[in-house]
Structure formats: structure tokens, C-alpha cells
């Protein structure tokens, strides 16, 4: 899924995550979200990459923690996606126009699928600037860097991985309001949830390969694999609980 070479130059958007001595989960989260989104055919950047960025080209004021590794390596691994002809949705609107943006997002055909995805992978950080606006009522997803944690830290620990927990789902709140009560919309998300087990199975081998490489602790790796698999299995029940429906 991840391109190794191109016949021509491409422009990519790059995101850096702290290394944390092997405990970094940001890149693991990004790869997990991108592969599952791709399997579900949810609009997102078409290609994803792991790139080695020369340390000399990294603007340290934007990532001050990189000063701690600057002397240790000439390059730093980062996650990147192919740049799309779009901008983050919310920055196109003034604050007073946010209701107009929300109404437009509600017309997006893939919104139920995106809500189900964020429930599945416990993406707690899908705010409006993590949608790319492609046109009227048409968006793409970016940023799966924060999974299974409710604070600003991307680095989940094994204790954070509770398959039955109701994590924050910002898209569902944008769609239905803070209490997530709308039976008509909920039905669309529940239909979308039915495809997740098969979608996960279709990318399971590749996910396991990346997890093997990027989650060095076997116990953490097994816990994350169980977490993602179990949430796909009980996704409908998780959504019914969120939408206050009878399970």
C-alpha cells in the first residue's frame, strides 16, 4: 500500500511524531487509520509514505523536541501523505460561519462511514481542521495520529486500550449534536459499521507487518491488535450505545 518509488516527483504533507525511545505511537496510529480507511474506501489522501527527512531541513521551532535527537541522527522518520488539491475545512471559514460548514459536512455522503471509522479505531481528535474540503458537501479525512487517548499525547499505553470504552468521537458530535441523538442518522452509521470486519480482514496482514516493525514490545503489540479487532467485532454495539439506541 505504501509507495517505495515514483517515476516523477510528488508533493507530500509530512507529520513528525516524538520518538519516545520506541514508545511512539503516532506513526503506528497513522498507518492503522490510513490502511483501514483505504479498505473502507473512505476519501483520504491517495497514497501514504514513511519518509526520512534530513534533520537540517526540519524547522526546529515547530518541533522543539527534535533538538534532543539532532546530534544522534542525520535523518528522522516521519509519516507523509500525498498532497491533495484542498485545504483543511475549518480554515476556509470565519468563526461566524462554522454553522454553515457543519451543515455542509452533514451533506457529505461518506460522513456515516467516517463516524463509524473513528468509533472503530478510537480516533479522539478528528476536529474540523482534520477534514479536507474537496468541494460542496465533499470531504476527505486526514490525521489518525491520536488513537485511544483523550489528551494531547499520541502515545497510548496498554492501559489505555479498552475495547468497550466510549472514547470521544468528535465527528458524531458535529453530525448529531453533543448528545448524539438522531435515529435516522444513527441508522446510516450502523449500516456503515457492517463492513468493518471484512475491511479489517482485508488489510490484517499488512497491519500486522507494520505493528511488528513499529511496536517493539510484544505485549503492547498484542494488546493493540486485540483492541482494533475487538472494536471491529462489536462496532454496532458501540455505536448503539453512543446513539442511545437499544442494543
The end-to-end span amounts to 36 Å
Largest β-sheet summary: 3 strands, antiparallel
Put simply, the count of helices is 8
Judged by helices, strands and strand pairing, the structural class is alpha+beta
CATH level 1 class label:
Mainly Alpha
- Our estimate of the beta-strand percent is 5-15%
Coarse morphology:
globular
Number of strands: 6
Taking pLDDT < 50 over at least 5 consecutive residues as the criterion, the unreliable ranges are none
The share of residues in helices is 25-40%
The whole-angstrom Rg is: 18 Å
Give the count of structural domains.
1
Query: Strand order within the widest sheet?
Result: 1-3-2
Order of helices and strands: EHEEEHHEEHHHHH
The CATH architecture? Orthogonal Bundle
The chain-level mean pLDDT equals 88
Structure description:
With about 250 residues, the chain is an alpha+beta fold. It has one domain: Orthogonal Bundle (Phosphatidylinositol 3-kinase Catalytic Subunit, Chain A, Domain 5). It is built from 8 helices and 6 strands. Strands 1-3-2 form a 3-stranded antiparallel beta sheet, covered by helices on one side. The chain has a 3-stranded antiparallel beta sheet with strand order 4-5-6, with no helix packed on it. A hairpin with a 2-residue loop joins β5 and β6. The longest helix is centred in the last third of the chain and has 19 residues. The two termini are about 35 Å apart. The mean pLDDT is about 90.
Amino acid at each position: 500500500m505504501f509507495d517505495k518509488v515514483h517515476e516523477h516527483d510528488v508533493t507530500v504533507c509530512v507529520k513528525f511524531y516524538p520518538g519516545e525511545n520506541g514508545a511512539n505511537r503516532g506513526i503506528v496510529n497513522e498507518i492503522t487509520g490510513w490502511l483501514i480507511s483505504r479498505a473502507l474506501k473512505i476519501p483520504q489522501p491517495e497514497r501514504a509514505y514513511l519518509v526520512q527527512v534530513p534533520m537540517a531541513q526540519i524547522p526546529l521551532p515547530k518541533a522543539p523536541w527534535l533538538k534532543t535527537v539532532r546530534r544522534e541522527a542525520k535523518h528522522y522518520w516521519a509519516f507523509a501523505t500525498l498532497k491533495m488539491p484542498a485545504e483543511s475545512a475549518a480554515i476556509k471559514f470565519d468563526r461566524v460561519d462554522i454553522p454553515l460548514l457543519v451543515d455542509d459536512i452533514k451533506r457529505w455522503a461518506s460522513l456515516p462511514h467516517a463516524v463509524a471509522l473513528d468509533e472503530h479505531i478510537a480516533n479522539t481528535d478528528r476536529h474540523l481542521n482534520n477534514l479536507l474540503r474537496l468541494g460542496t458537501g465533499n470531504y476527505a479525512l486526514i490525521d489518525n495520529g491520536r488513537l485511544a487517548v483523550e489528551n494531547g499525547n499520541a502515545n497510548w499505553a496498554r492501559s489505555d486500550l479498552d475495547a468497550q470504552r466510549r472514547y470521544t468521537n468528535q465527528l458524531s458530535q458535529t453530525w448529531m449534536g453533543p448528545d448524539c441523538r438522531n435515529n435516522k442518522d444513527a441508522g446510516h452509521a450502523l449500516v456503515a459499521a457492517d463492513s468493518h470486519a471484512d475491511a479489517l480482514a482485508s488489510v490484517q496482514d499488512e497491519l500486522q507487518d507494520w505493528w511488528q516493525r513499529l511496536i517493539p514490545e510484544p505485549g503492547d503489540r498484542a494488546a493493540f491488535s486485540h483492541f482494533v479487532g475487538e472494536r471491529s467485532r462489536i462496532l454496532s454495539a458501540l455505536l448503539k450505545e453512543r446513539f442511545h439506541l437499544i442494543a
